[in-house]
Design goal:
Elements (H helix, E strand, L loop, with lengths): L3 H13 L2 E5 L6 H12 L7 E5 L9 H8 L10 H9 L5 E5 L5 H14 L4 E6 L8 E5 L15 H5 L2 H13 L10 H10 L4 H8 L7 H15 L9 H14 L3 H10 L5 E2 L1 H8 L9 H10 L4 E5 L2 E5 L2 H13 L3 H21 L6 H10 L1 H12 L5 H10 L1 H5 L4 H14 L5 H16 L3 H18 L2 H17 L3 H18 L2 H17 L3 H18 L3 H16 L3 H18 L2 H17 L3 H18 L10 H15 L1 H12 L3 H10 L18 H11 L4 H8 L3 H15 L4 H9 L18
Helix pairs in contact: 1-2, 1-36, 3-4, 4-5, 7-9, 8-10, 9-11, 10-11, 12-14, 12-15, 13-16, 16-18, 16-19, 18-19, 19-21, 19-22, 21-22, 22-23, 22-24, 23-24, 24-25, 24-26, 25-26, 26-27, 26-28, 27-28, 28-29, 28-30, 29-30, 30-31, 30-32, 31-32, 31-33, 32-33, 35-37, 35-38, 36-37
């Protein structure tokens, strides 16, 4: 609402400084302003604008990991998250919005400094109650919303209604009382309410809710009473933080006793929560479970909780200022330890339930739910590892979340939680044995087979010592993966067969399906086609019996490899496309990457060499995002190498590299459409065109012209003088023989913009 001057000033600062921090008290609207500025600047950042919400993060240790998650970087290597983040951003033109930095101020300052040094085209817009204090930072103090000058002439009613603070009040009041407007009758009361609240957006929004039961004049009277009480009779204007605190106090006092209890108890959640979680964690001792829904509804009506829709489910979020207030109340009531324990126990059970429901028709819903609950799961893990007597609980949670770690952005984080738990829990227990084989799979995906082998050796020893049949089954399975990775197919097959037998005996369909998939691939690798097909078909039967989809998709991938080897490329392609369709819906980059590889091999066999090269380019982009090629399927690398050599020989090196780059530069969604439907996006050239006559800097500016940026916006984005930008554009028009910017946009759309080696960009020309 409003903020035109502040938004313009923030944009100006971003054009001259690579780090801009919006500062101000809680509730003043820093986040809203940052989002507006980011949206306005979006076209100037070719690689996107990314929001990183830090309010729910309680430790700086996971700061870099949180940023990689927000950037949707799915690196599955064993590298430190900060190194992954630096490499990802190094050549990208990105605006990173770090929201709510104040409780992680030093960590955010160090992170910003490292990223800005390593990524010359990166800019950071931060929000914080104080400056980060790093070199080159510019700060903009976010003021309260504009109100009429108290000493100036009296505004007309229409003019008053256009003041930013009044406009917000009217907008929020209108959502409570449809048709509410500033009139000659209520104008003085409206203005005084907004002035009493110092124009703080959160205060205005909380106060407007009171119009359900009060007139504007009654609202004003009660505000006056509230502030007079707070200052023991003084009528002086309160400092803004006291003003907001008084307003929140009043909102709290106007809640019923049970609403206050729920407000305090909900404060233990991080990020968002659903009704089921609220019922489990917040009920009891004054709140019946069946009453939680009504109380949640009341807090939504009072703007204490915000309602969010996620697909077919509804979740709730509490603004950080209100959450901190609630946590203070919870601590004052002596309930904090108990509610934090209940929160941890709830998410420990949620992780266990997800593991139990992994193999069935609700699988994808569980994967989705765990991603929505990630902030709370992380809080539960932090709480567990913060107490020595609860570390085994934390290790169990981390082990139960195996499929959450490998089907999302969190594989590296999962490995770190498991490493931490294993170090803290050396006792020979079932939980440790299970965590060891769980962690070994993450290590295998990260190509860290040495660590995986050591963990599996200990897991097997514990399984034998404690008589744990499921542990022995999984230790055999993952030991087979290590052997296959090392090229020892015969040993791998023996281990996989042991795993199949043990999983049959324990009645574990998850382990059985996974062992059958790996055994099928191994027999395919040694040329035993009948056995490979039979094992794959058996795996499909197991999956279908349980209505399972994810392992089924990997089974189809494995069958596709063998059917392709037999020469039935049409059926092989159909299997891989079916598998890719599921992996795409789940957003599983590992599965997608393997599907793309096999489709590339199939295309090469069909002598559709250009398609094969494009698919290899798409797969390369996926593997770069994951951090390892054919991660977890190293024994298939020789097929990849043979395909590359054959396609390069058939097309010739220049055409091969051009086609690979053409695939690599496709946006992810368009790339998968091409893989599934064999259709390039409209306007995509089918063959490489002649080299561009433009310099790298001119090419960059031409791309910004094609995005519709003005000369002034281009200058701001590249931090050059507007006159310099205009000179470059004149050269571009002259070189291309064009007379308009529209012609440049059309030309850019038809050019091979990846003329250099994948992943490389030229240094900027001197401006």
């Amino acid at each position: 609402m409003g903020r035109r001057h502040e938004a313009a000033e923030a944009r100006r600062m971003l054009s001259t400084s690579r780090l801009v921090t919006l500062t101000g008290v809680g509730g003043v609207g820093k986040t809203r302003l940052a989002l507006r500025v980011a949206e306005d600047a979006r076209r100037a950042f070719a690689d996107g604008v990314w929001l990183v919400e830090l309010a729910a993060l309680e430790t700086p240790d996971l700061l870099a990991q949180s940023v990689t998650e927000a950037l949707e970087v799915r690196d599955q290597s064993a590298r430190p998250p900060l190194d992954v983040l630096v490499d990802h951003l190094r050549e990208k033109q990105v605006l990173l919005v770090l929201d709510n930095c104040e409780h992680l101020i030093q960590g955010c300052a160090l992170l910003a400094d490292r990223l800005l040094r390593a990524a010359p085209r990166l800019r950071i817009l931060a929000t914080s109650r104080q400056a980060l204090g790093t070199a080159g930072e510019q700060t903009l103090a976010v003021p309260a919303l504009a109100l009429p000058d108290a000493t100036g002439p009296r505004l007309s009613t229409a003019a008053l209604a256009q003041c930013d603070g009044v406009r917000l009040f009217v907008e929020r009041a209108g959502s409570i009382l449809p048709g509410f407007a500033v009139t000659d009758t209520n104008r003085d009361a409206v203005e005084r309410v907004c002035r009493r609240l110092d124009g703080i957006p959160l205060g205005i929004e909380l106060a407007a809710v009171r119009l359900r039961a009060l007139s504007v004049q009654q609202l004003l009277d009660r505000l006056d009473d509230r502030f007079r009480l707070l200052t023991t009779g003084s009528r002086s204007v309160l400092p803004r933080h006291q003003t907001l605190r008084a307003l929140i106090d009043w909102s709290h006092d106007l809640c019923t006793e049970r609403e206050r209890l729920l407000w305090a108890r909900v404060s233990v959640f991080s990020g968002t929560l659903d009704l089921e979680a609220a019922e489990a964690v917040c009920s009891g001792d004054g709140i019946a479970r069946e009453d939680v829904l009504d109380l949640v509804t009341e807090l939504v009506d009072k703007s204490v909780l915000l309602r969010e829709e996620h697909g077919t489910t509804v979740r709730y979020r509490m603004l950080d200022t209100l959450r901190q207030y609630g946590r203070e109340r919870l601590a004052a009531a002596g309930e904090e330890p108990d509610r934090l324990r209940r929160h941890r126990d709830y998410y420990r059970q949620l992780a266990a339930d997800a593991r139990a429901a992994l193999f069935g028709p609700a699988q994808v819903q569980w994967f989705t739910r765990l991603q929505l609950e990630h902030a709370n799961l992380r809080s539960a893990l932090e709480a567990s590892f913060a107490e020595p007597e609860e570390t085994a609980c934390g290790l169990g949670i981390a082990a139960d979340l195996l499929y959450h770690w490998i089907t999302s952005y969190y594989l590296g984080e999962g490995r770190r939680w498991l490493d931490q738990g294993l170090a803290a829990c050396p006792e020979p227990t079932e939980v440790r044995a299970r965590a060891l084989w769980t962690n070994s799979w993450l290590a295998i995906i990260q190509s860290d087979t040495k660590a995986a082998a050591a963990m599996l050796e200990e897991s097997r020893a514990l399984g034998e010592r404690l008589g744990l049949a499921p542990v022995l089954a999984y230790a055999a399975l993952y030991s087979g993966m290590v052997a296959m990775y090392r090229g020892d197919a015969r040993s791998a097959i023996a281990l996989y067969e042991e795993a199949v037998a043990r999983h049959r005996a324990t009645g574990d369909p998850v382990g059985l399906a996974l062992a059958l998939i790996r055994l099928s691939l191994a027999h395919s690798f040694i040329g035993d086609s009948p056995r490979a097909i039979a094992l794959g078909e058996e795996s499909l039967e197991v999956c279908d019996a349980y209505g399972e989809g994810w392992h089924r998709a990997y089974t189809m991938m494995a069958l596709g490899v063998e059917v392709w080897r037999q020469g039935d490329t049409a059926r092989a392609a159909a299997l891989e496309r079916d598998s890719l369709t599921f992996n795409r819906s789940l957003d599983d980059p590992l599965g997608v990457g393997v599907n793309l590889e096999v489709l590339a091999w199939i295309a090469a066999t069909d002598r559709d060499y250009r398609r094969s090269a494009r698919l290899l380019g798409i797969a390369r982009t996926v593997w770069q995002s994951i951090g390892a090629s054919l991660s977890g399927y190293g024994h298939l690398v020789h097929y990849h190498d043979e395909c590359e050599a054959d396609v390069a020989r058939a097309l010739g090196r220049p055409a091969y590299h051009a086609a690979v780059k053409q695939g690599a530069r496709l946006p992810y969604d368009q790339a998968l459409v091409y893989a599934l439907e064999d259709q390039l996006p409209s306007g995509e050239p089918a063959a490489p065109e002649r080299p561009s006559p433009l310099t790298p800097r001119e090419t960059e500016i031409a791309q910004l012209v094609a995005q519709g940026l003005s000369n002034k916006e281009i200058a701001a984005a590249l931090v050059i003088a507007q006159r310099t930008a205009e000179g470059h554009i004149e050269h571009i028009l002259s070189k291309l023989g064009f007379s308009s910017r529209a012609q440049v946009a059309v030309w850019v759309a038809h050019q091979d913009r990846a003329a250099l080696t994948d992943g490389e960009r030229p240094p900027d020309d001197p401006a």
